[in-house]
Design a protein that fits this description.
- By secondary structure, this protein is an alpha+beta fold.
- The chain folds into two domains: about 230 residues, endopeptidase domain like (from Nostoc punctiforme) (endopeptidase fold (from Nostoc punctiforme)); about 120 residues.
- The longest helix is centred in the first third of the chain and has 75 residues.
Length: about 375
Protein backbone atom coordinates (compact mmCIF):
# COMPACT_ATOMS: atom_id res chain seq x y z
CA UNK A 1 0.00 0.00 0.00
CA UNK A 2 2.83 2.41 0.92
CA UNK A 3 4.75 1.51 -2.28
CA UNK A 4 1.63 2.11 -4.36
CA UNK A 5 1.15 5.48 -2.72
CA UNK A 6 4.77 6.43 -3.47
CA UNK A 7 4.35 5.42 -7.11
CA UNK A 8 1.18 7.48 -7.35
CA UNK A 9 2.86 10.56 -5.90
CA UNK A 10 5.93 10.15 -8.10
CA UNK A 11 3.88 10.14 -11.28
CA UNK A 12 2.13 13.32 -10.18
CA UNK A 13 -1.56 12.90 -9.41
CA UNK A 14 -4.15 15.62 -9.54
CA UNK A 15 -4.42 17.58 -6.25
CA UNK A 16 -7.91 16.45 -5.27
CA UNK A 17 -6.81 12.82 -5.51
CA UNK A 18 -4.06 13.44 -2.95
CA UNK A 19 -6.61 15.12 -0.68
CA UNK A 20 -8.98 12.20 -1.12
CA UNK A 21 -6.28 9.66 -0.38
CA UNK A 22 -5.46 11.50 2.83
CA UNK A 23 -9.11 11.07 3.85
CA UNK A 24 -8.87 7.29 3.59
CA UNK A 25 -8.97 4.37 1.16
CA UNK A 26 -10.52 5.17 -2.18
CA UNK A 27 -13.13 2.46 -1.94
CA UNK A 28 -13.24 2.05 1.83
CA UNK A 29 -14.19 -1.37 3.15
CA UNK A 30 -15.43 -2.51 -0.25
CA UNK A 31 -11.81 -3.00 -1.33
CA UNK A 32 -12.81 -2.52 -4.93
CA UNK A 33 -10.01 -1.91 -7.43
CA UNK A 34 -10.59 0.69 -10.13
CA UNK A 35 -10.22 -0.47 -13.73
CA UNK A 36 -7.22 0.78 -15.67
CA UNK A 37 -9.50 3.04 -17.70
CA UNK A 38 -10.69 4.67 -14.50
CA UNK A 39 -7.18 5.15 -13.16
CA UNK A 40 -6.26 7.01 -16.33
CA UNK A 41 -8.80 9.68 -15.37
CA UNK A 42 -6.54 10.77 -12.50
CA UNK A 43 -3.46 11.48 -14.61
CA UNK A 44 -1.87 14.91 -14.44
CA UNK A 45 -1.53 17.10 -17.52
CA UNK A 46 1.38 16.21 -19.74
CA UNK A 47 4.61 17.10 -17.84
CA UNK A 48 6.05 18.31 -21.12
CA UNK A 49 3.30 20.91 -21.39
CA UNK A 50 4.02 22.12 -17.87
CA UNK A 51 7.72 22.37 -18.69
CA UNK A 52 7.05 24.50 -21.75
CA UNK A 53 4.84 26.82 -19.73
CA UNK A 54 7.54 27.20 -17.06
CA UNK A 55 10.30 27.88 -19.56
CA UNK A 56 8.33 30.51 -21.44
CA UNK A 57 6.96 32.08 -18.30
CA UNK A 58 3.48 32.01 -19.81
CA UNK A 59 0.35 30.50 -18.28
CA UNK A 60 -1.61 28.70 -21.02
CA UNK A 61 -4.35 27.81 -18.54
CA UNK A 62 -4.91 31.44 -17.58
CA UNK A 63 -5.03 32.37 -21.24
CA UNK A 64 -7.49 29.55 -21.92
CA UNK A 65 -9.70 30.76 -19.07
CA UNK A 66 -9.80 34.23 -20.54
CA UNK A 67 -10.49 33.19 -24.11
CA UNK A 68 -12.31 29.88 -23.79
CA UNK A 69 -13.95 30.19 -20.37
CA UNK A 70 -17.23 31.63 -21.73
CA UNK A 71 -17.21 29.00 -24.47
CA UNK A 72 -16.80 26.22 -21.91
CA UNK A 73 -19.64 27.67 -19.82
CA UNK A 74 -21.86 27.73 -22.91
CA UNK A 75 -20.90 24.16 -23.75
CA UNK A 76 -21.73 23.03 -20.22
CA UNK A 77 -25.07 24.81 -20.46
CA UNK A 78 -25.89 23.01 -23.69
CA UNK A 79 -24.81 19.65 -22.27
CA UNK A 80 -26.95 20.22 -19.17
CA UNK A 81 -29.93 21.17 -21.32
CA UNK A 82 -29.47 18.00 -23.34
CA UNK A 83 -29.22 15.85 -20.23
CA UNK A 84 -32.25 17.51 -18.64
CA UNK A 85 -34.19 16.81 -21.83
CA UNK A 86 -32.93 13.23 -21.74
CA UNK A 87 -34.23 12.74 -18.21
CA UNK A 88 -37.59 14.20 -19.25
CA UNK A 89 -37.66 11.74 -22.12
CA UNK A 90 -36.76 8.87 -19.79
CA UNK A 91 -39.60 9.90 -17.49
CA UNK A 92 -42.03 10.03 -20.40
CA UNK A 93 -40.97 6.57 -21.55
CA UNK A 94 -41.45 5.18 -18.02
CA UNK A 95 -44.91 6.75 -17.77
CA UNK A 96 -45.94 5.41 -21.18
CA UNK A 97 -44.76 1.92 -20.20
CA UNK A 98 -46.59 2.09 -16.88
CA UNK A 99 -49.76 3.40 -18.52
CA UNK A 100 -49.63 0.74 -21.22
CA UNK A 101 -49.40 -1.95 -18.53
CA UNK A 102 -52.42 -0.46 -16.75
CA UNK A 103 -54.33 -0.24 -20.03
CA UNK A 104 -53.58 -3.87 -20.87
CA UNK A 105 -54.78 -4.91 -17.40
CA UNK A 106 -57.99 -2.90 -17.82
CA UNK A 107 -58.62 -4.38 -21.24
CA UNK A 108 -58.22 -7.89 -19.81
CA UNK A 109 -60.63 -7.14 -16.96
CA UNK A 110 -63.07 -5.58 -19.41
CA UNK A 111 -63.00 -8.66 -21.61
CA UNK A 112 -63.62 -10.98 -18.64
CA UNK A 113 -66.41 -8.77 -17.32
CA UNK A 114 -68.05 -8.64 -20.75
CA UNK A 115 -68.08 -12.45 -20.91
CA UNK A 116 -69.61 -12.62 -17.43
CA UNK A 117 -72.33 -10.12 -18.34
CA UNK A 118 -73.03 -11.89 -21.63
CA UNK A 119 -73.43 -15.23 -19.83
CA UNK A 120 -75.72 -13.65 -17.22
CA UNK A 121 -77.81 -11.96 -19.90
CA UNK A 122 -78.24 -15.25 -21.76
CA UNK A 123 -79.34 -17.00 -18.56
CA UNK A 124 -81.77 -14.21 -17.73
CA UNK A 125 -83.28 -14.54 -21.21
CA UNK A 126 -83.66 -18.28 -20.74
CA UNK A 127 -85.42 -17.79 -17.38
CA UNK A 128 -87.77 -15.22 -18.85
CA UNK A 129 -88.60 -17.50 -21.78
CA UNK A 130 -89.25 -20.44 -19.44
CA UNK A 131 -91.59 -18.37 -17.31
CA UNK A 132 -93.42 -17.21 -20.40
CA UNK A 133 -93.85 -20.75 -21.70
CA UNK A 134 -94.85 -22.41 -18.43
CA UNK A 135 -96.63 -19.52 -16.79
CA UNK A 136 -96.15 -18.52 -13.18
CA UNK A 137 -99.74 -19.51 -12.36
CA UNK A 138 -99.08 -23.24 -12.94
CA UNK A 139 -96.82 -23.46 -9.93
CA UNK A 140 -99.35 -21.70 -7.72
CA UNK A 141 -102.11 -23.98 -9.10
CA UNK A 142 -100.10 -27.00 -7.98
CA UNK A 143 -99.90 -25.46 -4.53
CA UNK A 144 -103.66 -24.82 -4.34
CA UNK A 145 -104.60 -28.27 -5.66
CA UNK A 146 -102.25 -30.15 -3.38
CA UNK A 147 -104.06 -32.50 -1.00
CA UNK A 148 -101.06 -33.04 1.30
CA UNK A 149 -100.49 -30.05 3.68
CA UNK A 150 -96.80 -30.94 4.04
CA UNK A 151 -96.38 -31.06 0.28
CA UNK A 152 -98.11 -27.68 0.01
CA UNK A 153 -95.70 -26.14 2.51
CA UNK A 154 -92.72 -27.62 0.67
CA UNK A 155 -93.93 -26.25 -2.66
CA UNK A 156 -94.44 -22.81 -1.09
CA UNK A 157 -90.90 -22.80 0.31
CA UNK A 158 -89.44 -23.83 -3.05
CA UNK A 159 -91.37 -21.08 -4.79
CA UNK A 160 -90.12 -18.49 -2.29
CA UNK A 161 -86.54 -19.71 -2.64
CA UNK A 162 -86.74 -19.64 -6.42
CA UNK A 163 -88.12 -16.13 -6.33
CA UNK A 164 -85.33 -14.93 -4.03
CA UNK A 165 -82.67 -16.65 -6.13
CA UNK A 166 -84.01 -15.11 -9.30
CA UNK A 167 -84.10 -11.68 -7.67
CA UNK A 168 -80.54 -12.06 -6.36
CA UNK A 169 -79.39 -13.24 -9.77
CA UNK A 170 -80.90 -10.21 -11.46
CA UNK A 171 -79.31 -7.93 -8.84
CA UNK A 172 -75.92 -9.52 -9.53
CA UNK A 173 -76.45 -9.14 -13.25
CA UNK A 174 -77.20 -5.44 -12.79
CA UNK A 175 -74.07 -5.01 -10.64
CA UNK A 176 -72.00 -6.81 -13.29
CA UNK A 177 -73.37 -4.50 -15.97
CA UNK A 178 -72.56 -1.45 -13.84
CA UNK A 179 -69.01 -2.75 -13.33
CA UNK A 180 -68.72 -3.33 -17.06
CA UNK A 181 -69.74 0.25 -17.83
CA UNK A 182 -67.27 1.53 -15.22
CA UNK A 183 -64.46 -0.55 -16.73
CA UNK A 184 -65.33 0.76 -20.19
CA UNK A 185 -65.04 4.33 -18.89
CA UNK A 186 -61.72 3.56 -17.15
CA UNK A 187 -60.37 1.93 -20.30
CA UNK A 188 -61.38 4.90 -22.45
CA UNK A 189 -59.72 7.31 -20.00
CA UNK A 190 -56.59 5.14 -19.84
CA UNK A 191 -56.39 5.07 -23.63
CA UNK A 192 -56.64 8.87 -23.81
CA UNK A 193 -53.95 9.20 -21.12
CA UNK A 194 -51.72 6.77 -22.99
CA UNK A 195 -52.10 8.79 -26.17
CA UNK A 196 -51.30 12.03 -24.31
CA UNK A 197 -48.20 10.49 -22.74
CA UNK A 198 -47.07 9.17 -26.11
CA UNK A 199 -47.35 12.70 -27.49
CA UNK A 200 -45.31 14.01 -24.55
CA UNK A 201 -42.72 11.30 -25.18
CA UNK A 202 -42.40 12.33 -28.82
CA UNK A 203 -42.03 15.99 -27.78
CA UNK A 204 -39.34 15.08 -25.23
CA UNK A 205 -37.50 13.05 -27.85
CA UNK A 206 -37.59 15.99 -30.25
CA UNK A 207 -36.28 18.29 -27.50
CA UNK A 208 -33.32 15.97 -26.90
CA UNK A 209 -32.55 15.90 -30.61
CA UNK A 210 -32.68 19.70 -30.79
CA UNK A 211 -30.42 20.17 -27.77
CA UNK A 212 -27.92 17.59 -29.03
CA UNK A 213 -27.86 19.32 -32.40
CA UNK A 214 -26.95 22.57 -30.62
CA UNK A 215 -24.07 20.83 -28.86
CA UNK A 216 -22.83 19.21 -32.06
CA UNK A 217 -23.01 22.52 -33.91
CA UNK A 218 -20.88 24.26 -31.31
CA UNK A 219 -18.36 21.42 -30.99
CA UNK A 220 -17.98 21.08 -34.76
CA UNK A 221 -17.10 24.76 -34.99
CA UNK A 222 -14.03 24.29 -32.77
CA UNK A 223 -10.54 23.53 -33.99
CA UNK A 224 -8.58 20.58 -32.64
CA UNK A 225 -6.42 22.94 -30.59
CA UNK A 226 -9.47 24.62 -29.09
CA UNK A 227 -10.94 21.27 -28.11
CA UNK A 228 -7.69 20.26 -26.42
CA UNK A 229 -7.54 23.55 -24.53
CA UNK A 230 -11.19 23.21 -23.51
CA UNK A 231 -10.52 19.71 -22.18
CA UNK A 232 -7.54 20.96 -20.15
CA UNK A 233 -9.56 23.91 -18.86
CA UNK A 234 -12.45 21.65 -17.90
CA UNK A 235 -10.15 19.36 -15.92
CA UNK A 236 -8.59 22.33 -14.14
CA UNK A 237 -11.97 23.75 -13.18
CA UNK A 238 -13.07 20.33 -11.94
CA UNK A 239 -9.92 20.13 -9.79
CA UNK A 240 -10.59 23.57 -8.34
CA UNK A 241 -14.20 22.71 -7.55
CA UNK A 242 -13.18 19.42 -5.91
CA UNK A 243 -10.52 21.06 -3.74
CA UNK A 244 -13.01 23.71 -2.62
CA UNK A 245 -15.58 21.01 -1.85
CA UNK A 246 -13.12 18.93 0.20
CA UNK A 247 -11.88 22.03 2.02
CA UNK A 248 -15.45 22.89 3.03
CA UNK A 249 -15.64 19.72 5.13
CA UNK A 250 -19.05 18.89 3.66
CA UNK A 251 -17.94 15.34 2.91
CA UNK A 252 -17.04 14.66 6.54
CA UNK A 253 -14.10 12.63 7.75
CA UNK A 254 -13.24 8.99 7.32
CA UNK A 255 -14.79 6.36 5.10
CA UNK A 256 -18.07 4.56 5.69
CA UNK A 257 -18.58 0.89 4.92
CA UNK A 258 -20.99 0.15 2.06
CA UNK A 259 -23.87 -2.26 2.42
CA UNK A 260 -23.61 -5.59 0.63
CA UNK A 261 -26.00 -4.35 -2.06
CA UNK A 262 -24.10 -1.06 -2.29
CA UNK A 263 -20.85 -2.94 -2.82
CA UNK A 264 -22.50 -4.88 -5.65
CA UNK A 265 -23.90 -1.72 -7.23
CA UNK A 266 -20.47 -0.05 -7.17
CA UNK A 267 -18.83 -3.12 -8.70
CA UNK A 268 -21.38 -3.16 -11.52
CA UNK A 269 -21.03 0.56 -12.21
CA UNK A 270 -17.21 0.42 -12.26
CA UNK A 271 -17.36 -2.49 -14.69
CA UNK A 272 -19.07 -0.17 -17.18
CA UNK A 273 -16.22 2.39 -17.20
CA UNK A 274 -15.20 3.18 -20.76
CA UNK A 275 -18.61 2.48 -22.30
CA UNK A 276 -20.24 5.36 -24.20
CA UNK A 277 -22.96 7.67 -22.96
CA UNK A 278 -26.21 7.27 -24.89
CA UNK A 279 -29.34 9.21 -24.03
CA UNK A 280 -32.06 6.79 -22.98
CA UNK A 281 -29.44 4.06 -22.63
CA UNK A 282 -29.86 1.34 -20.00
CA UNK A 283 -27.11 -1.02 -21.16
CA UNK A 284 -25.51 -3.30 -21.71
CA UNK A 285 -23.40 -1.43 -24.26
CA UNK A 286 -24.20 2.17 -23.35
CA UNK A 287 -25.93 4.19 -20.64
CA UNK A 288 -27.14 7.63 -19.73
CA UNK A 289 -26.58 8.93 -16.19
CA UNK A 290 -29.69 7.49 -14.53
CA UNK A 291 -29.61 4.42 -16.74
CA UNK A 292 -26.24 3.56 -15.19
CA UNK A 293 -27.34 4.11 -11.58
CA UNK A 294 -30.70 2.37 -11.95
CA UNK A 295 -29.18 -0.65 -13.69
CA UNK A 296 -26.36 -0.89 -11.15
CA UNK A 297 -28.82 -1.07 -8.28
CA UNK A 298 -31.11 -3.42 -10.21
CA UNK A 299 -28.19 -5.83 -10.66
CA UNK A 300 -27.50 -5.46 -6.93
CA UNK A 301 -31.05 -6.66 -6.22
CA UNK A 302 -32.67 -3.31 -5.37
CA UNK A 303 -34.80 -1.80 -8.16
CA UNK A 304 -34.93 2.01 -8.03
CA UNK A 305 -36.74 4.67 -10.12
CA UNK A 306 -35.50 5.22 -13.67
CA UNK A 307 -34.77 8.96 -13.81
CA UNK A 308 -32.53 11.22 -11.74
CA UNK A 309 -35.52 13.39 -10.75
CA UNK A 310 -37.46 10.34 -9.55
CA UNK A 311 -34.43 9.02 -7.70
CA UNK A 312 -34.08 12.37 -5.94
CA UNK A 313 -37.81 12.57 -5.15
CA UNK A 314 -38.45 8.98 -4.06
CA UNK A 315 -35.28 7.63 -2.44
CA UNK A 316 -34.22 8.42 1.12
CA UNK A 317 -31.98 11.46 1.35
CA UNK A 318 -28.73 11.35 3.29
CA UNK A 319 -26.35 14.14 4.40
CA UNK A 320 -23.19 14.45 2.35
CA UNK A 321 -21.10 13.80 5.46
CA UNK A 322 -22.78 10.39 5.72
CA UNK A 323 -22.11 9.28 2.14
CA UNK A 324 -21.10 5.67 1.70
CA UNK A 325 -20.20 3.77 -1.49
CA UNK A 326 -23.32 3.01 -3.51
CA UNK A 327 -25.19 6.19 -2.52
CA UNK A 328 -26.32 8.40 -5.37
CA UNK A 329 -25.23 12.03 -5.70
CA UNK A 330 -27.72 14.32 -7.45
CA UNK A 331 -26.48 17.38 -9.34
CA UNK A 332 -27.92 20.73 -10.44
CA UNK A 333 -31.06 22.41 -9.12
CA UNK A 334 -33.33 20.52 -11.52
CA UNK A 335 -31.84 17.15 -10.46
CA UNK A 336 -30.93 16.53 -14.09
CA UNK A 337 -27.77 14.51 -13.39
CA UNK A 338 -26.95 11.63 -11.07
CA UNK A 339 -23.76 9.70 -10.29
CA UNK A 340 -22.78 6.93 -7.87
CA UNK A 341 -20.45 7.62 -4.95
CA UNK A 342 -17.67 5.04 -4.74
CA UNK A 343 -15.68 6.37 -1.77
CA UNK A 344 -12.60 8.52 -1.37
CA UNK A 345 -14.33 11.62 -2.72
CA UNK A 346 -14.97 9.94 -6.08
CA UNK A 347 -18.00 9.11 -8.21
CA UNK A 348 -18.59 6.92 -11.24
CA UNK A 349 -20.82 8.53 -13.83
CA UNK A 350 -22.10 8.55 -17.38
CA UNK A 351 -21.27 12.23 -17.87
CA UNK A 352 -22.83 13.54 -21.08
CA UNK A 353 -23.42 12.93 -24.80
CA UNK A 354 -20.21 12.20 -26.65
CA UNK A 355 -18.38 11.11 -23.49
CA UNK A 356 -17.70 7.78 -21.81
CA UNK A 357 -18.48 6.38 -18.38
CA UNK A 358 -15.69 7.41 -16.05
CA UNK A 359 -14.59 8.05 -12.47
CA UNK A 360 -14.67 11.72 -11.46
CA UNK A 361 -14.30 13.92 -8.37
CA UNK A 362 -17.57 14.15 -6.46
CA UNK A 363 -17.36 17.94 -6.12
CA UNK A 364 -16.70 18.71 -9.76
CA UNK A 365 -20.32 19.78 -10.37
CA UNK A 366 -22.90 21.67 -8.28
CA UNK A 367 -24.35 19.13 -5.82
CA UNK A 368 -28.07 19.20 -5.03
CA UNK A 369 -27.92 16.38 -2.48
CA UNK A 370 -27.58 12.64 -2.04
CA UNK A 371 -29.93 9.66 -1.71
CA UNK A 372 -29.57 6.09 -0.48
CA UNK A 373 -31.35 3.27 -2.34
CA UNK A 374 -31.03 0.83 0.58
CA UNK A 375 -31.39 2.80 3.85
CA UNK A 376 -31.97 -0.40 5.82
CA UNK A 377 -28.95 -2.14 4.30
Amino acid sequence: MGGAAQRTESTGVRPWVRAALRCGAVLAAAALALPAAAQAAYASPDPGTAGVAASTGSDPLAAAKATLGPLLDRLHELYQNAEAATEQYNGAVAKVTEQQTALTDLQGRLERQQKQVDAGTDLASQLAAAQYRNGAASAYAELLLSKDPYEAVTIAELLATASRSQSEFLDRLKADRDSLNDLKKQTEDALKTSQTLATQQDAAKAKVATDLASVEQLVSSLTGAQRAELEQLEKAKADEAQLAFLASGALGKGERTPSQAGRGAVAFALAQVGKPYLWGGTGPGSYDCSGLTSQAWLHAGTPIPRTSQEQWAQLQRVPLNQLRPGDLVIYFQDASHVAMYIGGGLIVQAPRPGAFIKVSPVGSMPILGAVRPDPSG
